[in-house]
Amino acid sequence: MTVQQHIINLATSAKAACPTIANSPVSQRNEALTKIAEALETSRAALLKANELDLESAADAGLDAALVDRLELNDARIDGMLDALSIVRSLPDPIGGIEDLKSMTSGIQVGKMRVPLGLIGIIYESRPNVTIDAASLCLKSGNAVMLRGGSEAIRSNLVLSDCIKSGLKAAGLPEAAVQVVDTTDRSAVSALVSLEGLVDMVVPRGGKGLIERVAREAKVPVLKHLDGVCHLYIHAQADPEMAIALALNAKTHRYGTCNTMETLLVDEKMIDTLEAIAQPLLAKGVELRGCEATHKVLAERCSRASAHDWDEEYLAPILAVKVVSGVEEAISHIARHGSGHTDGIVTSCHQSAMRFLRAVDSSSVMVNASTRFADGFEYGLGAEIGISTDKIHARGPVGLEGLTSQKYIVLGDGHIRA
Amino acid sequence: MTVQQHIINLATSAKAACPTIANSPVSQRNEALTKIAEALETSRAALLKANELDLESAADAGLDAALVDRLELNDARIDGMLDALSIVRSLPDPIGGIEDLKSMTSGIQVGKMRVPLGLIGIIYESRPNVTIDAASLCLKSGNAVMLRGGSEAIRSNLVLSDCIKSGLKAAGLPEAAVQVVDTTDRSAVSALVSLEGLVDMVVPRGGKGLIERVAREAKVPVLKHLDGVCHLYIHAQADPEMAIALALNAKTHRYGTCNTMETLLVDEKMIDTLEAIAQPLLAKGVELRGCEATHKVLAERCSRASAHDWDEEYLAPILAVKVVSGVEEAISHIARHGSGHTDGIVTSCHQSAMRFLRAVDSSSVMVNASTRFADGFEYGLGAEIGISTDKIHARGPVGLEGLTSQKYIVLGDGHIRA
Which locations, inside or outside the cell, does it occupy (chains A, B) (predicted)? Predict the structure, then answer.
């Protein structure tokens, strides 16, 4: 059997499970999450053993350290998976509720019911915890799911697959509702994202290369973000202490995350504060790459930014710094160089805050807060399947709601159209 | 200049107008709609003259009668465009509002702001009124728009383009925000739907051939529906009089619309009512194509349905009729043969109504109402840009909201992530 045919078979059986999972009561979906957690607890030793083999293969293959770190499981990380299952179980049922039921002049009542999308595909790298996170979010929202993890994690993922299937079975739900793709063949990804009519949405999680490939090849809708070139703009009426603290947190809280600030925009009227903003960043070892005006202030403590620095997602202790003439230049700089992920303003001026909020076309726009808050947990979604910088369907951190759709429902009492 | 380069130029200038239209106050967008209506009133004679030339060319080219009917303008149809402008103007501003602002435990407030998508492409056939309808909906929702009408309506559409541009100018908004594509070259459609990064969404309106072509070629998101294979299921506990009236209205109110019933499902316990349901349909000249059980009752008044009748969108006085064993068979028949557009149940049983509402995966699901109600005006949207049977983004009749997106906004007071 070809890889493509194998993927079609897995997707077909997952799709066949959709009506059952979609129409199951939330108590049954929660029961499945409980049983998956129990199976995971029972399988701790087997999982750690499988992960050890994955790690050995990764070492043999010379995988880079960051990838190996993400691949590694230990008791704390397994506890994290159990926590995730517990959190998702505690969230309210995202489907089946009827909203906005209104009476029309014709006499009919029109409302919306939230329903699952159907079959979701998740494509990800190394972290085995995504297998549990994604499966639990999809199940809770009444979807079936195809999980395609990295080949480096295949042994760990297959143990997790067994836990998930046994949990589904114990709760009386079809095991086929969650399919961990059991082939490491690279063409499985291409096959999965081509299944129009079978797969309703694909969520790629991982490096930019993976996401670009999925977006390019996909024939089904893709929920994604490519870059996080996030900005913080220090407005003329910013509180200096707040500006210093926010710039430091947005850049140095974590360097490798997509909501980390990559470019600092400083209003020319705040030029006297630039020194004080730069100091703690430099003390943390952040390399500053400044425009000409920045360089005048910081001299040899900052290198000169080249044209391409304004478009760079460093994911590292490097920060581009640019002095701008005001809120309008900040907005247009972000429009030109930003990635539509997360951008913030620091200001005490209400009008400037509102102007920035409205005009910046990013998935998260912030006033007087660190860009690092752009996250499903911080936004109260309970959990996150990913972040979307697309404008269609779901935007920003995506939780259970982004895995659902709304259909119209009409209630009449024999109403006909006149 | 190639057609492709011409379309890129039009789109680039429309895209450049996006920030201005997106950030304009609703009073200015409404003023533009008023000024477009005034220009349309002033241009009545010129528009009718241009339309006459379009009709002459259509006659010379031997266009079919239905297409010519849709192409024709008269004073009543121009009044209809003026009404549409007035209705859209009267709708509340769909953008800029902040919803669901909630305080998180971290201290930040998180909410959502509704914002325009950016640049919309509309691809349609013959009806010149779509030019005004679509332009007004896109402008009201703060979007720029590329309008690609049929070549048969090009002269009419160019007069309407002048009206729109003069209205935008009079309101102080950029004329480039609405671009009526002025070439009849067929490759303009392919060019338009390929503009990733410039066009944010495309809405094709017209025959199935057009929509399939757009969906196949598009590299940008498409809001669409292909078929309307709509069902009405007469449940065992249906009120017979209601069943008769709803079946008649759903089939015969209009034959050519996408929300017209194409298959009637009759519960086997209602077999005695089949005669009474069929009678008024036959009296209206509807051809019935029945399953074996239907045929037993109606004999020579009904032809035998072939396998493909269950998948047919007749758009004509033809109705497929099938006797089913109960609500579960009705649901599975619809899942297999329906197009996800609109399906209804007639029943007095609450449990069956709720089961049907939840389990039928269509953009509109109805209880005791005619499928003909699936429409933006009937649903209180004020106006409709189209109907979507996709599950991603917008589903069912799409009004102003479907032309918008939501971004997260975060309000802090110097909050940093711990």
Answer: Cytoplasm
- Give the count of Cβ contacts less than 8 A between chain A and B: 207
Task: Write the secondary structure of A96-111 as one string of H (helix), E (strand) and C (coil).
Answer: CCEEEEEECCCCCEEE
Residue A208 has pLDDT above 90, yes or no: no
CB B185 within 8 A of CB B159: no
Residue B412 with chain A: CB contacts under 8 Å: 366-370, 373
pLDDT of residue A378: 96
- Which residues of chain B have a CB within 8 Å of the CB of A113? 357-358, 365
The reply to whether A354 touches chain B by the CB within 8 Å rule is: no
> Closest by alpha carbon to A140, among A108, A99, A94, A106?
A94
Give yes or no for residue A66 having a pLDDT over 90: no
CB burial of A383-410 (b: ≥16 within 10 Å; e: otherwise) equals bbbbbbbbbbbbbbbbbbebbbbbbbbb
**Among the partner residues A221, A357, A378, nearest to B409 by beta-carbon distance:** A357
Is the CB of A374 inside 8 Å of chain B's CB atoms? yes
A230 part of contact set with chain B, CB < 8 Å: no
Residue pair B317/B286 in contact (Cβ under 8 Å)? The answer is: yes
Please work out, in degrees rounded to the nearest 5, the angle formed at the alpha carbon of residue B370 by the alpha carbons of B364 and B371.
35
Of A396, A409, A415, the CB nearest to B357: A409
Percent of chain A with pLDDT strictly greater than 70: 100
Stretches where chain B sits below pLDDT 50 are none
Residue B93: predicted pLDDT: 97
